[in-house]
Write a structure and sequence with these properties.
The complex is a heterodimer of chains A (about 425) and B (about 325).
Chain A: E1 3-7, H1 11-22, E2 26-30, E3 45-46, H2 51-61, H3 65-72, E4 74-81, E5 84-90, H4 92-105, E6 109-111, E7 116-122, E8 125-131, E9 136-138, E10 141-144, H5 152-157, H6 169-172, H7 178-181, E11 198-199, E12 203-205, H8 212-221, E13 223-227, H9 249-253, E14 254-260, E15 262-265, H10 272-275, E16 286-288, E17 298-299, E18 318-320, H11 331-350, H12 362-373, H13 389-397, H14 405-414
Parallel strand pairs in A: 1-2, 1-10, 2-6, 10-18
Antiparallel strand pairs in A: 3-5, 4-5, 7-8, 8-9, 11-17, 12-15, 12-16, 13-14, 14-15
Helix pairs in contact in A: 1-11, 2-11, 2-14, 3-4
Chain B: E1 5-6, H1 17-20, H2 46-52, E2 63-75, E3 78-84, H3 87-93, E4 99-103, E5 113-116, E6 119-121, E7 126-132, H4 136-143, E8 149-156, E9 160-161, H5 163-168, E10 173-179, H6 186-195, E11 199-205, H7 215-221, E12 224-227, H8 240-251, E13 257-261, H9 264-276, E14 282-286, E15 302-304, E16 310-312, E17 316-317, H10 320-324
Parallel strand pairs in B: 10-11, 10-13, 11-12, 13-14
Antiparallel strand pairs in B: 1-17, 2-3, 2-8, 3-7, 4-5, 4-8, 6-7, 9-14, 15-16
Classes of the chains: A alpha+beta (about 425), B alpha+beta (about 325).
Chain lengths: ~425, ~325
Amino acid sequence: MAKVVVIGGGWAGCAAAVTARKAGAEVVVLEKTDLLLGLGNVGGIMRNNGRFTAAEEIIALGAGELLAITDWATRHKNVNFPRHKHAFLYDVTKVEPLVRKKLAGMEITIKLETRAVDVKKEGASLKSIVLADGSTVEGDVFIEATGSTGPMGNCLRYGNGCAMCILRCPSYGPRISISQRAGVEDLLGQRGDESYGAYSGSCKLAKHSLSKEIMEKLDREGVVIIPLPAEDINVGKLDYKVCQQYALREFAENLILLDTGYVKLMSSYYPLEKLRKISGFEFARYDDPYSGGKGNSIRYLSMAPRNNALKVEGLQNLLCAGEKAGLFVGHTEAITTGSLAGHNSVRLYLGMPLLELPRGLVLGDLIAFANERIKTPEGLKNRYTFSGGQYFQRMIVQGLYTIDVEAIEKRVERMGLTDIFNEKII
Amino acid sequence: MGITNCIDAGTEYCPCYLAETGECIMCSQLQGKVFCDCINWRGVCIYQEYIWNNVQSKERRPVHACRILEQKEIAPLVTLLKIQVKRTLARELNQPGAYVFLRAPAYPTFFDLPMSIMSADERAGIIEIAVQKRGIKTKYLLQQEGQKEVLLRGPYWNGILGLKYLKSFQKGKALLVVRGIGQAPALPVARKLLQGGNEVEVLLDRGRIEVDFTGDLFRKMGCQVREKELLKREDFTITEETLIYLRESFLQRGFGLIYGGGSELLHQGISCLLQEVERKVYFVCSNNAQLCCGEGVCGSCQTRLADGSRVKRCKTQLEPLSIYGGR
């Protein structure tokens, strides 16, 4: 039986585990913290703009398990906020236990508090992953979904220092780039000024620390927009932000709050002192990152060169997913690359041709487009997401964006890919 | 080289001079690289500590002027020193592998001599050290008639390699193979193993110093002690009888950890034997680095490992088999 080792239990790693398991592999997920989903534990936005199209394509391809969970945990459907339409906001506090249960039910082995630090190789082939305690985990095919965020030294060199985000590096140890350890150099995302990395795009406030009026409006409508006093508007901060779909003037001129269980404040960080001067925020405090008044995690410092089937270049049996696979933003994007990498891990084991999703699907087009762009200097300064920015524009221009579920199902069917991720191939 | 640890990582003496010069043993950001590749994580971000410390190393270990409470020659070659220190320092030194640098106040810093701690009394603030008279430094340290004071720099902790095995070994059987002056630093080793609920047996060879000054102390702690000639007089390889005894101890008597407290030749002999024996036995040994500065600066303790990498033995917590296996 093929043994697939997934390194990193974020959304991408979980999605990869699901499709690898469905394709017939024995799967083990190595996760350094005590939670699956990684930064996804503080996410919450699905189906906004082109993510709706992507989510429905994923479901039609047969990898809808994780989306079923986020849809189930959704608190607000079809929310609109500046330049974003029909967003689903799920309750982040509900989702992780359900994902864990789902994976366990599929007999996927989850090893929490298990940090990968190195690889053992034979030629261009990985033999095993070395863990922090010196032990090893052997496998036939490996999927790296370690993300690109942190660790502390990077957040310090390229940001304002460790802001104590949900990844909790001081408690669980730093992320290690597995592909780099295997000898394949990482690619690095840049900001407009060509410095490296970018800030995570939002911070989370404890809901009950805000005024009753704000809380009630959030509970009712899912979104609250509060214009900022002119002296507090800092448009320059948008340049540093990961999420270019939210790096918009409206986001600098207003406090945009979304109800994701926490109050998601759509700003990388915001000094607490200033925040508390705004009416309704007098008692505000951060839940993620704890030092959201000072900084946020730094991302995009570790991408592997890969092909459109998500195999890492230069290594025979390593695939990648999530931010490791490119300058992607968001869970839908992570589930996209994760699902493909998981499925392809079994094809790779069997020596079958790897699946490349066609560019007639937004999923295939995003993966291929991001890969073209990452090879250009300007492309390294951009981010790729179905929900906005350059790529959503492209979706519209190419006629790929639709919220017609039936049309999406037909599109997938026409390409002969309906339920392909449900096929057991071993 | 795999995962290595700096003994000082995360202590109040970290980051050190090596961080300032881009030679940190642990942190890729402090090795001249500009990204984290933190395979040696020890619980703190050294780069962060460095930046928070205004981009400089922490204050170095102070030199304390300490009173010598007792200087007793117990054999022509061995003198026991009891030294009064601050209780904090005694506490920091009360662990296996701890050592300090000593020198007589009248002499310059290059007389500094690394000496292992034989015992440390945290309450009274007294440490005990056994000095073997050997060369210039030891002779000058001991010859001062009526000397009341000694200069002490410390604490240092890397006197033992394989510390992680020593700290995690529990409810098993451990064998201490000690020779000559190597008896002294084996006492804290025995104490640690006994605290872990282990049965401890000591094979003791008087060696060159021709005195057993620890046998009773081991027995008092609850160890079983056997006097045995460990090394042959002619070529300093392990005697046949000892080899047979060790092999039996591992294979038939269930010993799961061996501590070597002696010369490089003793450690090499143990290492060879462990590679033959078809059973996992943890190997811990005294760190016989060349006398050096203790700070990873002077370079005299640099050692080349089997894989070609070079390490500073005074600060790097190494796997003993990486030095003695296959070199």
